[in-house]
Amino acid sequence: MRKKKRGVYASKMKRATHMLFYRRHQKAGVKGWELHKALGIDYPKVLGILDDYLKSLYLQVKTVFEEEKTPAGKPSIEELNKARFYITLRGELTPKESKMIGWRIDDLAGLAVAISYIISKRGQAPRKDVEELLSEKLPGWKVGLNLDRYIRYGYLQQDDNERLYLDWRTRAEVDEQALIDSLLRSEAQTNLHSKSTSDEEEEGEEQEGE
Amino acid sequence: MQSKKAQKKFGKEKLQRIIEMCMAIENHTVDPFMLDVDNIIRVVKEYFPRWEQADELNLDAETIHHLASVIKLQSEWLKHRSTSLYTDPFLLEEKIIQAAKEEMVSIFLKAWHPLVELEQLSLHSLTEATRYWEKLLPLKERWPELAVPEVTMGTASRDELIRQRILGDKVFSKELECCWKDLKEKVHEGKILYWDFIGAETYEETVQRALLASFLITYGYATLEIHPLEEEIFIKPFEKPLTKVGTQQSISIPIAVTYENWHKWKRGELD
Predict the structure, then answer these.
(1) For domain B172-267, which CATH number applies: 1.20.1290.10, 3.40.50.1820, 1.10.10.580, 2.30.29.30?
(2) Is the same domain home to A80 and A112?
(3) φ and ψ at B258, to 5 degrees?
(4) Cβ B102–A108 below 8 Å, yes or no?
């Protein structure tokens, strides 16, 4: 009986893997209700098992709740049905790896700047302001092209008034809180560095060495 | 000592200025905390007893409405500041400008977990696709050409258009005049229930009478009297058409002239 149950879950996990890894729609990911329909009401459990399995591969099942409303406690089945599920990297990429997946350092830095700036402006910013910020370090002809690329990929979206917002891919791939924390920590490091005490310099060197 | 009229004028100007300020805040051009809400409430309270006319009270209500929007914006701003995601935009902007490309990338990579997705053909999907292609009929067989008869251009007489119900058999203004006359004849004590006036033997005729009634009201030949508690609507003809139509703001009153309502009226179930 237990073997039979295990077999059922193994088959459901296989089905969930196919649904989550292979792109089915224009947007990546699978809606909760689609998984519900294909795997049954216990699909959150199937995803839990899959997530455990993916740990060893440094991958994870990522849940993005509708309208960024992450429930405070355990999400209800209704909330999960409306959420979108993706497979993402669990850990971090090294700069070398990011190059291998097709991102030039300039483009990635531009994306990081655009996303951080929009977060700091409470989720929306005029395209002109982002362009000005990017043109500080990128050639003018590239700024517009890059922004259009970020929009095309689903990282940013633009409204009729030329205001930029974060789009579905940023919500799925970027840990906004971690990004802002890292930026602020890096601010603290810069400040400490400017005091230029020898101890701090040594510490900085150690960190760079890591 | 200012006259009452001058005081009112001054008060209206104050409220207008408050509304403009609130609108600037709503459009995100001014900081929501620039507005001293207590002071504004004091001004609104001070002038409220002096307002008598509808437009004055309207201005007062509009001020309160905009003030409420600003308070909502202030509350949203506070909520955002209290979240851990809030950072001073200037501080962050400064940091972004100062950071080297490499530093920015290394920060971003700590928070970036790119999606893993595959777009790949499998032997199974290729076999399925080939099978589908074999079964697919050629376009010529799927979309046979439609035999569209050629039609030559010609002219249509007014009688033909009336027969086809594209035109009515009377000039519209004449129809409107007849309808007004009919209304004046049917009313008792100056008014008649709306449905008793527009209701006719057939549903089509009822709709046509409802259309004419709406034009009678719009052009100032008649008006509606609505008793919301009793849910009754009366139509009242004027002896002479009103000439002020179009000079003041008009309102639209939707009345559903549905088939079901017409049936109810016929059965005498519609009040």
Answers:
(1) 1.10.10.580
(2) no
(3) -90, 165
(4) no
